[in-house]
Amino acid sequence: MFELLPLILISVLFIIHRGATKRIDRLERELGEVREKLFRLGGSVGEPASLAVENSQAGSEQVALPLDAAAPTVSEEPLIDGAPRQSEPASVAEKSDDLLPVAARQDSKAPAESLENLLGARWAVWAGGLALALGGVFLVRYSIESGLLGPGVRLTLAALFGLALIAVGDLIRRKALPKAEALYANAMVPGILTAAGAVSLFGAIYAAHGIYEFIGPTLAFLLLALTAFGVLGLSLLHGQALAGLGLAGSMITPLLISTNAPSLWTLFIFLTVAQVATALASRIKGWLIVPSIAQSLLGIWALIALIDSADITPIALSLIAMIAAWMLIWPGTRTDHGEEQGAPLSLEALGRRMASGPLGLDITLSLAVLLPALVMLDRGPTDQFPLFAFAALIASLAAAGSARSGAFWPTALASVGALLGAVAKTGLLAQAQVALLGFGWDEDAIFSLGGPVMFIFLGLAAVIVLLGLAQIRRRFEADPLFSTIWAAIAAVLPVILATITFVFYGVYARDWTHGLFAIGLGAVLLAACEYLHRQGALPAFRRGLDLLLLGSFVAFALALHALTDGIVTTILLALLGFAYLMATRWRSWSGLPWIMVAALAGVLFRIAWDPTLVGSDALSRTPILNQLLPGYGIPALLALLSAYELRNWPGQRVRNALQGLASLFGLLAIAILVRHAMNGGVLDSSAPTLGEQSIYTLLVVGLSGILMTLDLKSPSPVFRYGSMVAGGIAILQTVSLHLGALNPYFTGESTGSWPLINLLLIGYLLPGLAYAGLAFYARDKRPLPYVVLLALSGAVLGFAWVTLSVRRFWQGEFIPYWKGFEQAETYSYSVAWLAIGVGLLALGSRFDARSLRIASAVIVMLTVAKVFLIDMANLEGVLRALSFIGLGFVLIGIGLFYQKILSGKAVSAKLSEPEEEPTGI
């Protein structure tokens, strides 16, 4: 029974072919009849039915168009099968389609496929093709299980059956497909038959080698490869699905062949040829799915081979060949995405361009190269060749991105791969984790990798710079979007790579290798900026130019850190930024002033890292005249000069930033010198005191007044809001430190041996007077709530100075709360507070200041509460009586004083009113 299976399958194929031919003939006849009826309904061969219908509906009021006007002259040749000859000109209906919208033309030319077509044509053909493929497989299986015929004969029959299916598929394609293309375009009858024959051939060849061993591995490999490439070639005629089958056969062929001496070179040469052939076929037909799969499969093969193989050369060369094929076969992205040529960079344009073109090809290529390249880094710490291979793959991928217009993903992923490779090879993440856990850096693990790693990554950085600048030079005018992306890569990535190698392999005292490399890098980027400026890169490439400027500055800053140390690096960093800023006199590049901002930010980082700038052991203990004066003073002076230099610069944000930094550096320089002087030349080992904090508060109050004055002369948001921020900081210092944490009443700190000139004078009276003066100065320049807060702060500090001075008079140099209170001391507080209230009342009357009179009333009420609540309970004898008697006289005097003030105001108001003229009777 099983012997008849081939005959049954061939009979089924013949019946299917015969039935399909009859259906096609019938459809052709029906189509001819329909066309003939349409032409007859139109009245002539050249007039379409639609015009005839319109003419019939118009009636007698509408005159029909003449035949000559309705359609061009048609040849009198007879129709063949109901259709005009090829020499017949197009009808009016065909020409009128060109006037319709694109969507309408597509709908008219490609009607929706009916359910009958889906079930009767496409599904039936697919099911039939699958049945034929399974028939071929079962035939191979039958040849294995049955012993009626010899193995050779059975395999020959299976191979002939596959070839017969391929031949029949091509026969149907040549005879039936051209006439039934519109109706059965999705049925893919020839392609299904060809795919079924290919599966049968693959099965027969594999059985001949893997089961019966009729042929050796070499011949089996060649036959399978020829079959796969043959199917790939036939896919040009039958479609992308057959190309996928050929690609799958090509990539699976090495797995079907077992040999005792596998050759990695032979394997990857074959895989490379298969991938390139797939790319060529796909490029001819415009396919995108199959070549993306081919690139992914080659990357997977590379990852599998890297698991056990010691030779990575063929793997790397195969991946480089894939990059070359992608670069040479597939075209770049055109500038047809709605933006004008030469338009400046924008995030919307970048989003459109990232998703344009063969996106799947770009991403699969990048990942297929990047992942094996990263795996190559783990091939052993002593072998440097995998690192060379990694650098070659990353450089090749970056070069492909540079050569291709619009290749965002190869460019971006090559940059990410270079950075990940540097981090992985140096063990940066692992070492940082160990350091964060408190175990320090494992220097043996770092430096055991050897010096070649440093040179390889520096070379890779140089290659990326040259590729980026070459791409920018070619396309900065035509494609500023991706040129700006390359500017960011060329400016940032090489500096990061050089910094990583300097941290792990550099000589911190003086590293000429990294220093000279950084100087060269900065010079090249700066020269590129000048070249692009002269080529007219502005304004479209303005952001790219700014990025290159920033990269040159960071490179020079790296050179300073590699060749200098300590306070010299800090000062030179500020001078470097100032040099960029002074270049604004010759070039109006928008990024030049911001370089000074970046330089000052770097100086702040160095100060935060080590406030001494030279080390605590090397810092001189001489007040003022020490290393801190130039280390803090020169950057502060340069910041001030920069703000002055940019007083007429059109960019307001950078001017505001430099003004704020100048104020900050000036205050920081004075504060650090004061701390150094008051702590005996030590910055980091002593706790702050009230005297030191008082100087800081005075500095902040003075800064607020200076910024207010600058705002009057040169209005600026930095000066306006900075003055109020400084005043707010000073108020917070008063509440939290002067009255709280550093108050000698709580800390027990010595107030000094002198009666009046002591710690209380510095800590309370002088800041209080400073607040009062600032409030008086700001009363008509700043909002009223801010002025009231300043005045209240001054009043509170003055009240605290009087109160603590009274306690010092009775308790001596030390006035902590644990020493308790004496009765005379308690009575003295009432007298002092009443004196303050009376004094404020007099001043308020003298200057007609309502706020002072309100403050006087508050203090008097506080004194009254103190007398009735505290003095009554704690004082005894004559002190209690004197307290109440004194309070009574003072309150009566204050009442009489207020009556005098109010009556005086009433009299003056009466005198100021105009006299009324007497009225006559």
Keywords summarizing the entry:
921 residues, mainly alpha, membrane, transmembrane helix, DUF2339 domain-containing protein, UCP035905_mem, transmembrane
Describe the structure.
- Pfam families: DUF2339.
- Among the domains are: 687-800; 821-908, no CATH class.
- Helices cover 74% and strands 0% of the residues.
- The chain has 35 helices and no strands.
- Helix 10 packs antiparallel against helix 11 and helix 17 (408-426) runs antiparallel to helix 20.
- The longest helix has 38 residues, at 5-42.
- The protein is elongated.
- The model is unreliable at 1-10, 43-121, 177-187, 334-345, 432-450 and 916-921 (pLDDT under 50).
What secondary-structure arrangement, pairings included, does this model have?
Blueprint: H1 5-42, H2 49-58, H3 67-70, H4 92-96, H5 102-109, H6 115-145, H7 151-175, H8 189-210, H9 217-238, H10 240-256, H11 264-285, H12 289-308, H13 313-329, H14 347-354, H15 359-376, H16 385-403, H17 408-426, H18 428-436, H19 443-447, H20 452-475, H21 480-505, H22 512-534, H23 542-563, H24 567-582, H25 592-609, H26 628-645, H27 652-678, H28 690-713, H29 717-741, H30 744-747, H31 759-778, H32 784-811, H33 823-846, H34 850-874, H35 878-912
Helix pairs in contact: 1-2, 6-7, 6-8, 7-8, 8-9, 8-10, 9-10, 9-11, 10-11, 10-12, 11-12, 11-13, 12-13, 12-15, 13-15, 13-16, 15-16, 15-17, 16-17, 16-20, 17-20, 17-21, 20-21, 20-22, 21-22, 21-23, 22-23, 23-24, 24-25, 24-26, 25-27, 26-27, 27-28, 27-29, 28-29, 28-31, 29-32, 31-32, 32-33, 33-34, ...
